[in-house]
Amino acid sequence: MSNAHLSQYPPQNQLHNKSTISANLSSGANTDDDSIALDFDYLAFEREAKVFLGDRIFSDYARRFAYGIDASCYRYIPKLVVWVKNEEEIARLYDLSQKYNIPLTFRASGTSLSGQACSDSVLVVANEFWKNIKIKFKDNANSSKAPTSIVCDCGVIGSDANAALKPYNRKIGPDPATINNALIGGIFSNNSSGMCCGVKQNSYQTIKSIRVILGDLRKTSKSSKNYGDDRGEKIKHNGNAIVLDTSDEARQDESLASFVNAYPHIVKSLLDLREEILADKELCEMIKRKFAIKNTTGYALNALVDFSDIKDILNHIFIGAEGTLGFISRVEYECVQDYAHKACALLFYENLSLASEAVKILARNDSIVSAAEIMDYACLMSASSLDGMPSEISKVKSGNCAILVQLEEDCLEALEKNIATITSALSPIESLFGVKFSFDSAEQESWWKIRKALLPLSASSRPSGSTVITEDICFEIDSFAKGIQNTQELFAKHGYEGIIFGHALSGNVHFIITPLLKDNAEITRFGRFMEDLAKMVASLGGSTKAEHGTGRMVAPFVELEWGEKAYKINQKIKQIFDSRNLINPDVIITNDKNIHLKNLKPAAQGVLEDYLDACMECGFCEKICPSKHLTLTPRQRIALRREIKRLKSLKNKTNSQRRQYEELKKSYKYLGVQTCATCSMCATLCPLEIDTAKIALKLSPKWSKKYGGVSALLASSLSHNISLMTTLARHLTSLSNSLQELLTPQKMQNLTRKFYATIGTPILPMTMPKPNEKKIRGQQWASKFLEDKCENVEYASLASSGISSGGLNGRLNGEVVYFTSCLNRIFAPKSNASSELESNITKIFDRPMQEVFESLCKKANFYLHYPQNIQHLCCGKAYKNHKEQSQNLAKNAYLALREASQNGRVPIVCDHSACSLELLKKIKEFEAQESANGDYLTPLRFYDLPAFVSECLLPHLEIVPLSQAAKQNPPKVALYAPCGTRNLSVKSQKWEESIFSIAKACGADIIHDSQVKCCGFAGNKGFITPELNESALKYFGTNFLKSSNQSPLSHSDYIFDEAKMGFSSSSTCEIGLAQKSGFEWRHIIYLADICAK
């Protein structure tokens, strides 16, 4: 896409002014103004950056818009977006920044709420390539000892760091509500705390060493005379970025000693600031007092008070600096105890005033209370629809509130003693339903689910078109009740309805308001509210930002909270490390007193589909999206969709808006639809269960109908003759196998890529399965497998169906209708050529899946048959882009299954998890239609194949361990549960768990990658958009955890190295898995048949 757009955006410093709140503060200025020429040479910047970044620099409008999205209330559209993969690239970007006076903003996961990771210049994303973890032990002891610290690259997800430490009953100190998504770089740079850590175990208290990439710190570096308004003159640079590593293992040229020797003026400047503070007793005492509570307003001034050693000062000064001083590459945290025993209580009170009194009691006992989370009535109502909510929530009345309390200890006896202490201490404060602690981890998890989901849950109920404003203030405990009261009074004064929650033990109050910022009057009202809020918090000695970071939201109020003297110290810190204001300008320090009111996300009332409108772009969904490293994530797809619909709704579009609309609409086909796997995994992490796959599922049929051409014609023809379709597909599979043998799989893939680019034919994977030659006919009973095992069978149920008993003469354990998918009627797994596997295993591996399941049923004494005319049946999923054909096929399958199952008496099983999910949804849909018509029929009993084997066959099978069945030490077994087994609609049926339960029953030594939830093959997309599958599996099997003697930046180990066979439950997924792993994958029933006698 052309870079011409880069010349049409205003430079950030043109937004700097000293206008009053009543000035023009159009919230859509940055979004819609695409016509102002750039003052800085972004085109030259991009041209030079591409030399070392390649295709990881983005200038097209669609991706600049999408990648600029974060969880805050601001919308800035970067001129360029960069995905960096190493420190050298950061250093070279610094040089280009200095050369062209172009600011850089560093972004981690984009979950921050205060606008600190937004940019209208160059957005530098450090996420995908920064995942290594190293656990360190005292004196390099072996890993059986408790670790002392953990070293994490900046892109490590907080929960992944904790997962690495879990075997040792350790964790990192910070525990933000976003820990499942937030990256270490962001957690550190925002000084995020969270539920339990307070100010005792946050980054400031648990940091051990840092690795930071700094810009040019030479004395000769020209600085801005008008700090905050100018970025200085252009100067030439030749690699002046600096690596500072304060760890014990630092290289000589990157060590603290080297830094002190090379930049004594920086050291002196910091120590001079320390002396300036210590000389002012009043200022010194204020800093100590304000950091005794949570405070992320401004820089970490306490680093200059608490420490005299320059190493300690440098370790701490970057904490909470929000990427305005340098790039945090790596962090070493001291490990903290993760207690083995936990107890939680959900306490309900009449009102917030009584709850505040309870908070004071809990705070006085903070040595034994790890968390106390307060939630007002509106919070409780927003969470009332979640699964597993306590019954008390249905009984609360308006004005009631709750506190979630957690205690934890290593010793159960000590925990019970603490519970008694807290219960007694709280007894003077009357609670609505008593004080009851729970030891049940599932119940505790459900309660914490309320608290962690409050932000998106509350945002979901906002008026259409409103903006989610999340504030984060803190008071000393004695002022906590007064602070909450004053906040509520401000709501009333300015006409807002807000919800209140927070970390009560720390005096930390969060609240959410959802103003309709559609015009200047509304923005002015919001601005006055923010001014009053800042003044109120300051009057009580509190923090206007406790843990979310200063960002842009309260940057104009830093001086108001801290006073002139302390504010000047903040300015000097910025000046020391970024004299030209090129690193994340306008964050923390700004001269623009209205920066918090500019570039707010524009109101887009009523333009988005209802199921998407609730999205507040929090980013919880992104972690497991299979296209996150390729194109867009779910929240980015929603944001682009929202913007497209908003632009479309404008009646009098400017030329700029018209261009934006056309470009976004054109780009969305590939970015938003073709590369969406439609796996619905995003809904499993979204607190609102928003399924972004619905966008692609809605748009694909429209585009197929409009642009389908031959594809639409073929779909219509072949849907009427599934038998012909499967026959043709088998012949094509056979032909592709022959061609691969003749030309090599790699050459065939390259050749078919060229054909796809010109005529749209499928791309041939290198791991194509072989054709399935098994002939299957409807009502073909597996009697030949059962004759020798069954005696004295009672035929009553079979005779009533008109089915011949064949030669059976024994009592059966059960019956099953086998709906074998058209995909598994086409494909059969290739022979496993590994010499390490015994012949009895390879013999089973060579059989079609249908024969393997028939064999299992024989061994379990289960009577199996196929639906009549199975060769003509299909669930319809293959035709999902052609609605009419898909619906007709699904209906035919449903009617055939109802007949074959004798109206629901006999259970039904399907052998492809994606098809199973599709069939199950369609069965429920058709049954609901029949019920609505007054035709109540017995619901069909439907299973995914592994679930049926686990639940129904395993109890009747004699299983021998794989080591015995293999007649030698077998290789480790790789497992993968496809996304179809993880769908929310089948969670209660445990489809995913059944795959693992079968492998465990077989005594397999299991290896699996818990990070990859969808392989991205996505049915036919593996053949037409193979880059989605490749991207989704890019890190499949990668172990980012290093041993204590490895470098954190060394190449990661591959966890599947010891595996020679893999098992799943989706033949199409298995194609992609085989290509990635280098060994064949099969359905899990092959493993079951190996081990079943």
From TrEMBL:
Coiled-coil blocks: 637-667
Domain of life the protein comes from: Bacteria
PROSITE patterns reported for this sequence: 4FE4S_FER_1, 4FE4S_FER_2, FAD_PCMH
Domain FAD-binding PCMH-type: 74-338
InterPro entries (alphabetical): 4Fe4S_Fe-S-bd, 4Fe4S_Fe_S_CS, FAD-bd_oxidored_4_C, FAD-bd_PCMH, FAD-bd_PCMH-like_sf, FAD-bd_PCMH_sub1, FAD-bd_PCMH_sub2, FAD-linked_Oxase-like_C
Pfam family, one: Fer4_8
Protein name according to UniProt: D-lactate dehydrogenase (cytochrome)
Higher taxonomy: Bacteria, Pseudomonadati, Campylobacterota, Epsilonproteobacteria, Campylobacterales
